[in-house]
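Work Package 3 committed the consortium to producing structural models of liganded targets before the mid-term review. Because experimental data for this complex are still outstanding, the team generated a predictive model from sequence and the ligand definition alone, so that downstream docking and mutagenesis planning could proceed in parallel. The input record is reproduced below exactly as it was submitted to the modelling pipeline, together with the SMILES string for nicotinamide-adenine-dinucleotide.
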Amino acid sequence: MAKQNNSFGVALFGVGRAGTIHFGNIIQRPRLQVLYLVDIFPKNCEQLLEKNYVPPGRTQVCSYENSQKVFDDENVSFVIVTTPTDQHEEIVRRALDAGKAVFCEKPIAVDHTRADQLFALSEERKVPLYCAFQRRFDPSMARIHDEVIQGEHGKVHMITTFSRDSPLPSMQYLKISGGIFHDCAVHDIDMVCWIANEKPDSVFVRGTARHPEIKAMGDVDTVAITLTFPSGVLATIHLSRHATYHYDQRLEVHCDKGMLQCGNEAADIVQTFGSNSVQGALPHFSFPQRYRVAYAAELDHFVQVLSGECDRLLVTRDEVNLVSAIATACEESLRTQQPVQFSL
Ligand SMILES: NC(=O)c1ccc[n+]([C@@H]2O[C@H](COP(=O)([O-])OP(=O)(O)OC[C@H]3O[C@@H](n4cnc5c(N)ncnc54)[C@H](O)[C@@H]3O)[C@@H](O)[C@H]2O)c1
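The resulting structure, written out as tokens with the ligand in place, is given here.
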């Protein structure tokens, strides 16, 4: 993996919703240089560069067909993969084979066996492979985790999360998303297991499709997941593909000595008091706004690992595999309507 004077050349694959966020963070960091933007629609890359006033010649635009030169370029230290999920595995494998470190949007692959093969390759090539569970870097969620792990609040009784998306993702996105568990629930499953600090022993799911188009594609959009843990901790995850009142992201941990709660953030905190009612701002519209700080912090963390300032990735191979295996168990539980006993 090449690095020059502690600065890093980056190639970004996929300039859609997630790619645009990471691109915005890269160009704000002087130690990072976007050498290539790759997309099946190169025009989208050109528009992104123009919109961000990137001087001509600084970043090469490339179609996926012509992307071998990206992997051959020794100035590229790491690759960011923000293509649709079904494209991750191939790009991650090509990057690792070329000795590049990889920052990949979740999920790394469609199941934990395939993800694990990529982690094995990253260890063989001695380059980091990061799975972008950005909620770990959200200051409020990280604080809840740290306080619970330190035992400040006694033992955990119950962990509850709510994740309701906004806006409703496009049907085109949902069709190739990998399904609600691998695409959406993985963030919550990761958060719950990270805070519980153990592996669940069973998972039980009920789900329904309230949107006819989602039903027609064989997926669900409304889900309740219950996880039990050997210590006795119980967790529930509530998911929806669409909340009309903006992006709803909440976390609650009930412990012996009290309850920790991370509510929604709003764009502003103004409240208008009338004679009969109080009005305030809605939660943030969507993930780019809600997790703005977390996306930047996870990129900084990844770069610190590359530069040796931090000795290991916060999100580990075992944790990513566990989350992916639980997502698959959720699919089984939904299908069979039975609890799935879980061991990994
Ligand atoms: N962590 C998060 O909060 C978060 C949020 C959104 C999306 N994601 C993840 O990011 C990934 C992308 O999602 P999105 O919403 O940005 O999708 P998107 O459809 O908005 O963007 C995907 C982009 O990739 C391009 N593309 C498709 N195939 C490609 C290929 N082979 N090579 C290069 N470019 C290619 C598309 O043209 C498009 O520009 C998904 O895996 C998703 O799970 C994560």
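Reviewers should note the following from the model. The chain is about 35% helix and 25% strand. These observations will guide the Year 2 experiments.
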